[in-house]
Amino acid sequence: QVQLVESGGGSVQAGGSLRLSCAASGYSSNSKYCLAWFRQAPGREREGVALFDSSGDTYYVDSVNGRFIISYNSPKATLDLHAYNLKPEDTAMYYCAAELNWLCYGHFLGRVDKFTYWGRGTQVTVSA
Predict the structure, then answer these.
(1) Beta strands 122-127 and 92-100: pairing type?
(2) Which of 8, 30, 87, 90 has its CA 20 to 30 A from that of 18?
(3) Would you state the pLDDT for residue 31?
(4) Half-sphere exposure of 33 (CA within 13 A, CB side)
(5) Over the chain (128 residues), what is each successive 10-residue block's mean pLDDT?
């Protein structure tokens, strides 16, 4: 059973940075997979932020491109999201998601239904 546990959220001022981490277990890193960070602000739909797959491809939503970096630490089996130059509009609950036996495609950023496994989230709050 795949398990995803997020950590690293917190409260920062605009312009600050955070590193979110997702501890992943229950699957083989030698197989195909697509890992993702999504976020959901109050009253808004969940949106894809960044994707990383087993071929090393990455995808970003336009609003974070150039500010966020997604990476996978294979020995630790953690999916990290380095968020720089944070803005108040980045405030949201951030979720880690995974789908096995698939590589990512860019349009997966908009497809919550493409991911079977989800963590419980970590809150990021950015004040002006």
Answers:
(1) antiparallel
(2) 30
(3) 83
(4) 22
(5) 96 98 87 94 96 95 97 93 98 97 87 95 98
